[in-house]
Input
Amino acid sequence: MITIDNYLDSHYIHRSNWLRAAVLGANDGIISISSLAIGVAAASSTREPIVLATVAGLVAGALSMAAGEYVSVSSQTDTEKADVQREIKELKEMPKEELNILAQIYEKRGLKKETAMQVAIELTETDALAAHIRDELGINEISQANPIQAALASGAAFTVGGILPLLVILFAPVKGMEYWLYGATIVFLAILGTMAAKTGGAGITKAILRITIWGTIAMGLSALVGYIFGIRL
Output
């Protein structure tokens, strides 16, 4: 039986925060580590420099992704908290003006003026702050992100994504390593695109094309840099 408590269970929007961080982390892990390895492989005739650069990039990248995601989401959360505090102050100092603003919001959404005012009054009587946070500021439980959750998802996903090209580096022939990496990375990206699309309910073909095209551009430029500036090691 569908109720107000479970009706979102079959929807995808509640997955958006962690899915965004996970896909971003895995995509960055696959592309950045592969691109780094391709650039080094283009300038190296031995496996050791490629492995060393890849491992260093993997560790640094995972920590950077986690820290960056935490700082970014924390900044967003701080901004939301500041707006909530401002709203609390405005509700105390100018309740009539805030009521009118709420009514205007509902009126713009399609309610008649009298109905919009009645809805605003009833919601204000129930929980004025919650109504303004949700409808004036646009903050709700779905849109709110957890800094720690986002950091862990991003860092872990980067690590998993970065390990995939590392495995290719460890077992593929050194000669033609760039081509092995490129081919394997395209496969990894296609799989990631498919998984992300299915998890988020999006189109698979579009997701695969988007992720593989940009991955190809990144790896191609990295290989070019390796060929131009690299010294055979």
Remarks:
- The helical segments are 16-41, 48-93, 95-108, 113-135, 147-171, 177-200, 204-229.
- Confidence is low (pLDDT under 50) at residues 6-13.
- The two ends are 66 Å apart (CA to CA).
